[in-house]
Design a protein that fits this description.
By secondary structure, the protein is mostly beta strands. The chain has a single domain, classed as Lipocalin (Beta Barrel), CATH 2.40.128.20. Helices cover 5% and strands 57% of the residues. The model has no long low-confidence stretch (mean pLDDT 89).
């Protein structure tokens, strides 16, 4: 775990606190689904997050899923969020130590994610996707627990 202060007092401290190996449980709710059984889903997974220094930015998080799929999120000092090298939205650090990401997709959907820590090793994330018409399409909630020791072989 990072030696950063808890709770994070600034965006750079927040990004550094994100680095590590995380076990995740994500519950997703599809608000546009019509059936009784297909509107929600829960899945477990693991993420590895690396925090890299970048020139002219606060830093970059590189998030890697177990299958090897990797996504980079660069946090420009002016609040711009760059995902995999392309401008994708904006970020905001709140006084309570949480980070808000606002992503605008090409199809007009706006995705807002709020990330906060309740402990240095427990991170919570909530996400809402809104259609171009302003109606909510999907929501999710994720609990991430930092892996502090290697898993048993």
């Amino acid at each position: 775990m990072s030696e950063q202060a808890f709770p994070p007092a600034d965006p750079a401290g927040f990004l550094n606190l994100c680095a590590g190996e995380w076990m995740s449980l994500r519950s997703t709710f599809d608000l546009a689904a019509g059936g009784d059984d297909d509107w929600h889903n829960s899945e477990r997974g693991e993420l590895t997050v690396r925090c890299d220094a970048l020139e002219a930015s606060l830093g970059q998080l590189v998030v890697q899923a177990p299958g090897g799929l990797s996504t980079s999120l660069a946090f420009a000092a002016g609040g711009e969020l760059v995902v995999d090298g392309a401008p994708a939205g904006h970020w905001r650090f709140w006084p309570d130590g949480s980070m808000e990401l606002n992503l605008n997709r090409d199809d007009g959907v706006c995705v807002q994610e709020r990330i906060w820590f309740t402990r240095a090793n427990l991170r919570l994330r909530s996400t809402t996707a809104m259609g171009a018409d302003g109606n909510p399409l999907q929501g999710s909630f994720c609990t991430d627990i930092r892996r502090v020791s290697k898993p048993a072989a």
